[in-house]
Write a structure and sequence with these properties.
single chain, 358 residues, alpha+beta, Jelly Rolls, 11 helices, globular, disordered N terminus, binds nickel (II) ion
């Protein structure tokens, strides 16, 4: 019986590899499946039994991710204190009155939709798993490593190595996307100042380290899902970056791990979600937390979001390590490129932080 089970298991694993490849080869992503009219999700997307069973035991916390009002300079100390508290406890907060016009946020969401819903041929030409491509479209960055594929597609715009030639940005979203990139980069700079102050170092400390130098913009598209209880929009993960600024539309589904339970990060019109990434957890010497989060799949949709990752300097190599806060360092020094190599050769639900623990 054991042998039979093993044989079945092997056969299943074999099929899975074939099915992943077949899905990848369509170059149409999850939206391609939905357009083809699937009413059941293909097996490669179904979460393993142990995960689905575990889900039944999860409670939900009704606590709210902190919302921080950035307007006004007269209470800067108070803003810094709120950011410190949120970064130490939740690793997540939402910001309002951040100076990016709500109209630009709405246009950005619209143009993400326009990219993903345009003619298939244009998207297929951009379909690639080559991480050195500055602009690429794909589905499931960890397709061949994860236990179950996620119900989402991604347009990635990378400014990690050198500048971006504006003409490389797909025409359907070029103008708005470049404007958003400019604005969110400015906001990222302001937040890095506030976070520096929250760490009791000079306001320009994190900026001077080049935290905002390399940036990746992940334009996510979560198509409506016929069986949302069996899969996820994005598996639980922490972000392999210093800082992430997330723009989400009004559908909802983002959850963050807090006190061993999942808490919703409800959409707030005009707000942006900010979260601490792995690299800032290391640099803050464990003071700030890079926290697991995920996105539920949904009958409703599509859901759009844009994650702006601030990744630091990868080229030429620059050594980063914990700031000296008077206590012994918790982590080894690291190169951004090495950290990324660890992250991108695994399933996204495996953080690289432990590897760097002293
Ligand atoms: C991410 C992420 C959340 C979302 O891209 O890393 O966590 O709401 N995205 O799309
Ligand atoms: Ni994330």
């Amino acid at each position: 019986m054991d042998i039979l089970n093993n044989v079945d298991h092997e056969a299943e694993r074999y099929n899975r590899a074939d099915e992943l490849k077949a899905f990848d080869d369509t170059k149409l992503g999850v939206k391609g499946l939905v357009d083809a009219g699937v009413t059941k999700i293909p097996k490669i997307f179904v979460r393993p039994h142990d995960e689905l069973a575990e889900e039944l035991n999860y409670g939900k916390v009704n606590l709210q991710v902190p919302v921080i009002d950035l307007s006004g300079n007269d209470h800067r100390m108070e803003i810094v204190a709120q950011i410190r508290e949120a970064s130490e406890t939740w690793g997540f907060f939402q910001v309002i009155n951040h100076d990016i016009p709500t109209s630009l946020l709405e246009e950005t969401i619209d143009c993400i939709r326009m990219f993903h819903e345009q003619e298939s041929e244009v998207k297929m030409k951009l379909y690639s798993r080559e991480r050195m491509n500055k602009v690429r479209f794909d589905s499931n960055i960890d397709l061949y490593q994860s236990r179950a594929a996620n119900w989402r597609d991604t347009l990635t715009i990378s400014m990690v190595v050198g500048d971006l030639d504006p003409n490389e940005v797909p025409a359907v979203c070029r103008e708005t996307m470049l404007e958003y990139i400019k604005e969110v980069t400015k906001l990222g700079g302001s937040l890095l100042e506030l976070l520096s102050e929250a760490l009791n170092v000079e306001p320009n400390y994190l900026q001077d380290m080049g935290c905002a130098h390399g940036r990746i913009f992940a334009c996510q598209y979560y198509p409506p899902c016929p069986e949302p209880e069996l899969t996820l929009g994005a598996s639980k993960h922490t972000d392999a970056a210093f800082l992430t600024l997330l723009l989400q539309d009004q559908i909802g589904g983002l959850q963050v791990r807090h006190r061993d339970q999942w808490a919703d990060v409800p959409p707030i019109a005009g707000a942006l979600v900010v979260n601490i990434g792995d690299l800032l957890q290391i640099v803050s010497n464990d003071k700030f937390k890079s926290v697991n989060h995920r996105v539920l799949a949904n009958h409703n949709g599509p859901r759009m979001s844009l994650a702006s990752f601030f990744k630091g300097v990868a080229v030429p190599p620059k050594v980063y390590g914990p700031i000296n806060d008077g206590s012994p360092p918790v982590y080894k020094d690291f190169l951004v490129s090495d950290y990324m190599k660890h992250f991108f050769t695994r399933s996204i639900d495996k953080s690289g932080l432990d590897y760097y623990k002293l």
